[in-house]
Amino acid sequence: MLLVDTRRLTGPNLLGPRPLVVVELALSEGESVDRVRDAYASELGRMRAALGMDTAPALTLRVRGRAVTIGYEAPLDAMFACAEMSEWAAWSAQAMLEGRPSLPLEPKREEVRTLLAQHRNPRLLELASEAARRAVPFLWDDETVSVGHGRTSRAFPTGAVPPSADVPWADLGAVPVALVTGTNGKTTTSRLLARLMQEAGWAVGASSSDALTLRGEELESGDCTGPFAARTILRHPGVGLAVLETARGGILRRGLAVQACEVAVLTNVGEDHLGSFGVEDVPAMAEVKGVVARAVRPGGTVVLHAADPNLVSLAPGLGRPVVFFADLDAASDATKALVRAHLEGHGRAVVCEGGRVTRLDGPDVVPLLDVAEIPITFGGAARHNVQNALGAAAAAWALGASDAAIVAGLRGFDAAQNPGRGEVRVLGGVTLLADFAHNPDGIRAVMGLVASLRARSTGRLAVITGSAGDRTDAEITGMARAIHAAGPDGIFVREMHDYLRGRAPGEVPALFERAFQALDASSSPGRSPTPCVRASTEIEALEQAFAWARPGDVVALLIHVDREGLRAFVARHARPDAPQPAA
Q1: E strands of 267-313, at which residues?
Q2: What is the number of other CB atoms lying within 10 angstroms of the CB of residue 183?
Q3: Spatial distance between the Cα atoms of 360 and 347, rounded to a whole number of angstroms
């Protein structure tokens, strides 16, 4: 047995709806789950007994292959100390299983006793209990505790929580919350849903992989997809409705920020971020995304992509109404049959059929607008953004937005409001597409738009790519395969210095280069290999690609993260009179 991690899950999570202290363990060859669980429980009980605590908390287990996660509930003010205790118990259990003596109680017992005393906070527990009794939202972290949401919330320092009798409960309440998750399309769908609900008259606070915003104005930049960012939006006094992009990492590391939401949107599930936290395959990742769906309160709605079988399989067990969305113009017969059966059962869906976005409520058919009227779809060429538009429209419908607001929002949402996702510019006659596509499915989707851009000219294609180091070799090879399938004439592989994540400098670019060489050799034996140039940064790769390119060529910049660098690059290369492609 090997201890992988110890952490606190402070909201709904993969093991259940309540906060838990968890340990993540890896089984050794031939080791049984029961033996490992019993050893851990024994050592945890030994330490808890020495501290005068209940010696046998109810354990919740999740087992996937050799990955075992064990969790148990603890009072909020004791979770930090219990995590320290659990780490000790896991180390001691490992020693026992390896035939060594278990760890001594001291000095860990005194350390945990001190932590329990330092973090003891009876007012925090009282406030949480009273909020639950009154059905008022309760948000908590190490620095801040709050009750209520947005304009009907109050926040206090965690170390200075007032008596619950002093809290103005009559002024507190909830705002509608939408959670958006998936492998690809989360950010675009979140941004678009926020725009639609703003058109519907709401003061929308939103979090995404780029920023926190209120009414479309940026409050804070950066990756804001975790629970801390979500709580920041939910505590803002100007927020009347929250749209929260919710990433896999936050769910697994800390759980959800909220106990419940009105709407959950699940865009898709693909091969990305596999191999950590016991999530080894796509069905397991669908379980992670399902945490968001299971947080929908009674009376709420789950919005699912009907073309994704892993998401569809979640629907029967959710106990909540489902609105499917589907691009039927590009769907399989199975997806079309699924949507048809759902409608025959008086279900709801938002689809694209015959180039038109349509809202379907059982037998009722309400046309909304043509796909060509939605700027981010590039006249329908960007099919992935057709799907994102459908998902956002379905969620807005579930949140009560009118058809007029949905149509106005879809028509008014363009590349300027979706930076870094499908940005297209013409610089000196060269078409530049910048997108965040960072996994095989995302790259294949963006390459559909690239094909449309190439069809407008007879030029060549250059692709700039790279990857964070926490992707597996197989995932990086899959990215290379998706790029290679588009038939690039030049490839520029850049190092992502801020995202090495355990890899050595140069290791990821070398993986790409070997993958492209192998793909060239297998697809066209004897053909000259596709030129592959290595760059140190995103902007260096852009400079190299544009030095290579000539008018009529297309340059696709994938995994675009250097927003300021790209703006400066565009400013250096733009001609004010150059025509830009319609978005």
Answers
A1: 296-305
A2: 24
A3: 8
User: Does residue 579 have a pLDDT over 60?
Assistant: no
Structure-token pair, residue 335? 């997806």
Q: How many residues does the chain have?
A: 583
DSSP assignments along 520-563, one per residue: HHHHSTTSPPPPEEEESSHHHHHHHHHHH--TT-EEEE-S---H
Contact 170, 292 (CB under 8 A): no
- pLDDT digits over 549-574, tens only? 999 999 999 988 888 999 999 999 88
The DSSP-derived string for 472-499 is -HHHHHHHHHHHHTT--SEEEEE--GGG
16 DSSP 8-state letter: B
User: How many angstroms separate the first and last alpha carbons of the chain?
Assistant: 54
Amino acid at site 427:
L
3-state secondary structure of 180: strand
**CA–CA separation, 26 and 40 (whole Å):** 13
Contacts of 414 (CB under 8 A, 6+ apart): 375, 376, 583
Question: Structure tokens of 433?
Answer: 């597409």
Long-range contacts of 452-456 (CB under 8 A, 24+ apart): 452/378, 452/381, 452/382, 453/381, 453/424, 453/554, 453/581, 454/554, 456/431, 456/581
Evaluated on CA atoms 69, 75, 80, 85, the torsion sign reads negative
> In 393-511, at which residue ranges do the beta strands (DSSP E only) sit?
423-427, 430-434, 461-465, 490-494
Q: Residues of 447-460 as b/e, b for ≥16 C-beta within 10 angstroms? A: bbbbebbbeeeebb
Of 115 and 454, the one with more pLDDT: 115
Average pLDDT of the chain to the nearest whole number: 93
Residues 57, 63, 68: CA angle, nearest 5 degrees: 65
* CA pair distance 377, 389, nearest whole angstrom: 8
* Secondary structure (3-state) at 2: strand
Contacts 24+ apart (CB under 8 A), 376-379: 376/188, 376/192, 376/413, 376/414, 376/415, 376/418, 376/421, 376/422, 376/583, 378/422, 378/424, 378/449, 378/452, 378/581, 378/582, 378/583, 379/582
Region of 206 (left: φ > 0; alpha: ψ -120 to 50; beta: rest) is beta
Residue-by-residue DSSP string for 124-153 = HHHHHHHHHHHT--EEE-SSEEEES-GGG-
- Distance, in Å, from the CA atom of 28 to the CA atom of 465, rounded to the nearest integer, reads 37
Report the alpha-carbon distance of residue 534 to residue 544 in Å, rounded: 9
How far apart (Å, rounded) are the C-alpha atoms in residues 330 and 448? 12
488 CB contacts (<8 Å, ≥6 apart)? 461, 462, 463, 530
Listing DSSP states for 242-275 in one string gives: EEEE--HHHHHHH--S-S-EEEEEE----S-STT
Residue type, 97: L
Q: Which residues pair with 67 in a beta bridge?
A: 26, 64
Up-side HSE of residue 55: CA atoms within 13 Å toward CB? 8
Q: Taking the CA of residue 118 as centre, how many other CA atoms within 13 Å lie in the half-sphere pointing to its CB?
A: 11
Q: How confident is the model over 61-80, as pLDDT tens digits?
A: 999 888 999 999 999 999 99
Strands of 318-396 (E only): list them.
322-327, 348-353, 356-361, 364-370
Tell me: cis bond preceding 576? Omega within 30 of 0 counts. no
